[in-house]
Amino acid sequence: QLQLVESGGGLAQPGESLRLSCVASGETLNLYAIGWFRQAPGKEREGVSCITRGGLWTLYADSVKGRFTISSDNAKNSVYLQMIGLKPEDTAVYYCAAVPKLFGACSTNFGEYVYWGQGTQVTVSS
């Protein structure tokens, strides 16, 4: 069974950068679409970005376009979320999730995802 572990969260000042990692075990991520989601206190879980195998398809929420970049490394069975120009409103717990998908586009609808990591906290504050 696929297991996902996120890391790379922490405290950043506005304008700074962080890189989140999602490392998979149990199966190859090449069989899955991977999404990054976030949830701030008192708010609904929000889809941030997603990527299909080989990086053939990527998608970003409007709130992060131009600031966040999703990428994958099949050799490391990992997916990354590079975040630049961080804003206080980016503060949330960030989760990676996976859904089996060999073809077609990915989605940032969290209801479609089957496997979830435990999350990593990102706090943006001066």
Please tag this protein with its features.
single chain; globular; mainly beta; four-stranded antiparallel sheet; seven-stranded mixed sheet; 126 residues
Order of helices and strands: EEEEEEEEEEE
Largest sheet: 7 strands, mixed
Instruction: Please state the average pLDDT score.
Output: 95
Instruction: Please tally the β strands and state the result.
Output: 11
Classify the secondary structure makeup into a structural class.
mainly beta
Roughly how many Å apart are the termini?
A: 40 Å
Low-confidence stretches: none
SSE arrangement:
Elements: E1 3-7, E2 10-12, E3 18-25, E4 32-39, E5 46-51, E6 58-60, E7 68-73, E8 78-83, E9 92-100, E10 115-116, E11 120-124
Characterization of this structure:
The chain has 126 residues and is mainly beta. The protein has no helices and eleven strands. The protein is globular and about 40 Å long. The mean pLDDT is 95.
In short:
With 126 residues, the chain is mainly beta. The chain has strands at 3-7, 10-12, 18-25, 32-39, 46-51, 58-60, 68-73, 78-83, 92-100, 115-116, 120-124. 0% of the residues lie in helices and 48% in strands.
